Amino acid sequence: MNRLKACLITAALLLVALPGGAAEPRISIIIDDLGYQLAAGRRAIALPGAVTFAVLPGAPRAVALAALAHENGKEVLLHLPLQANADKKLDEPIRIDLDMGRQQVAATFNAAMNAVPHAIGVNGHQGSLLTRHPGHMRWLMEAIRARDGLFFVDSYTTARSVAMQVAAETGVAALRRDIFLDPDPDPATVARQFERMKRLAIKRGTVVAIAHPYSATLAFLEKALPTLGAQGIRLVPISELLTTSSAAAGVTVADEAAGRSAALPVIRTEPRRASAL
Q1: Distance between CA atoms of 186 and 165, rounded to whole angstroms?
Q2: Greatest mean pLDDT among 22-36, 62-76, 95-109, 155-169
Q3: For the chain, which end, N or C, has fewer CB atoms within 10 Å of the first or last residue's CB respectively?
Q4: Which domains does the chain have, with CATH numbers?
Q5: Could you tell me the pTM of the whole model?
Q6: Is residue 266 a contact partner of residue 162, using CB atoms and an 8 Å limit?
């Protein structure tokens, strides 16, 4: 039995065990863009609870941070760079562009997977252009399916994304991001989005949220995450939500932030030299 199937069975058993089969509200928070800043990455990985981490392939600290997250019992995703709109140029060393053919898409994906140890799934970095193209998304999903047990999380940086549809057509388990916690790195924005996330979780049962390792975001989450349990909301790893696809619920706040977070730059430099892990 592969890891994905085991996660699905575990989640199903949790649902059955609750009175009336009704689960308490569950949220999964993915911290994107790990791989460049060692200090910020280590601080993010130290966040309390089952936070998930998406690591950029080829970034100088990618391997070290993916390993550290895994050692701390956190789930790791490949944060796969996908071509964005023309005004959002990608300069990541490993990325998938529209000028690639099927074989090059597969080869690039496999290189990216090999660059992020312990990744159990994939989510997109930017991708506001490529995720609108069914052909390239099909090639990507076929490459994901070829690696047994992987799943895909659509970061949903454009409302025109076809990722969920193509994933279903190719038999790849998938979820869609519902809300960005930090569409801009302002403490008031993070607090407001966190409250929206909680309300949505209570309303429909599950939420997939994405955040980034910005100082304001991490400072807020360090204080806010320990309070979720007392509010009857459970923070879970992303794999646990695979039984309840975000798209199936028919209620989403993703549209309001689609594309906004993708415009924020990845912070690549550290304020001071950090020691190696």
Answers
A1: 33
A2: 62-76
A3: N
A4: 25-235+257-263 (3.20.20.370)
A5: 0.82
A6: no
